[in-house]
Amino acid sequence: MTTHTTRMLIIGSGPAGLSAAIYGARAGMQPIVVQGLQPGGQLTITTDVENYPGFRDVIQGPWLMEEMQAQAEHVGTRMMWDTITEVDLSGSPFRAVGDSGDEYIGDTLVIATGAQAKWLGVPGEQELSGKGVSACATCDGFFYRGKKVVVIGGGNTAVEEALYLTNHSQDVTLIHRRDSLRAEKILQDRLHAHPHIKVLWNKAVDSFVGGDTGLTGVALTDTVTGEKSVEPTQGAFVAIGHAPATELFKGKLAVDGGGYLIVEPGTPKTAIPGVFACGDVMDHTYRQAVTAAGTGCMAALDAERFLAERDFAAGKA
């Protein structure tokens, strides 16, 4: 077992964690990033990215994360291939234990563990992911301009995605397994009033249908009559919510109703001084790479201020 110490310990290596690392390293904090189960975060399973600022042409998600990691390392970040299994947040310095048995000690802690889209778990979903099946309309909707698309779900996320997709398609279908939506009334009103959206009620998705050329349809069962059908489509967006990776922090940090870490509004500060949360683990609204990177920067700047104030107070004592 090895003990690693740092001024700033970062858990998670997506855009939020790596942006925090870049700013933290430039501030001389010699950050350590523990990469976790999915090094690079959700962008490593996203192929075409064309909404990240600075690139006129479409870029690949995995490439972008490789570049971010290389930049973080170049300015002095230490990357650790490990997964944190236990944390002690009782006070600074904060302690984390990895799956490897190694111990990580940080004067400040930045939590950037992200979130995962919830999937249906039906046949064809994984096979056609990126070939017509997606969990993010704002990421991928642009690729379905003028095509027939469906959204699966009944909450705010599903209705927002359906409305967003009308920017690109004049044929949007919302598929819901019940006969009423859970979304806020104002969103439901906008959905029902929209001329380019229709709703299929009481339909459960059995599978996604397609082949080498991509998605061609969604196989459905009527939850009332049991009748089988196939809804033809070129794009299907699974919008049944996200699950933030907050297991490690249960009972140690406050979470909201969706399981996201609660921070002081407009900041990445948690209720524990010196512990910061950034990216999708605390952001249930925007969930974009660029916003995650922005909050990662904020976390590093706040961590630097926290240490400067603490060191100044200690020097004066």
Describe this structure in words.
The chain is built from six helices and 19 strands. The chain is α/β, with parallel strands linked by helices and 317 residues long. The strands form five sheets. Strands 1, 2, 5, 6, 7, 8 and 19 form a seven-stranded mixed β-sheet that branches. Helix 5 links the parallel strand 12 and strand 13. The longest helix has 28 residues. The radius of gyration is 22 Å and the shape is elongated. It starts with a strand and ends with a helix.
Outline the biggest β-sheet: 7 strands, mixed
**E-strand count:** 19
Structural class: alpha/beta
What gyration radius follows from the Cα positions, in whole Å? Answer: 22 Å
N→C terminal distance:
36 Å
- The best one-word shape is elongated
Q: In percent, how helical is the residue content?
A: 10-25%
**Proportion of residues in extended strands:** 25-35%
| Count of helical stretches | 6
**Strand/helix succession:** EHEEEHEEEEEEHEHEHEEEEEEEH
Unreliable residue runs: none
Mean pLDDT equals 94
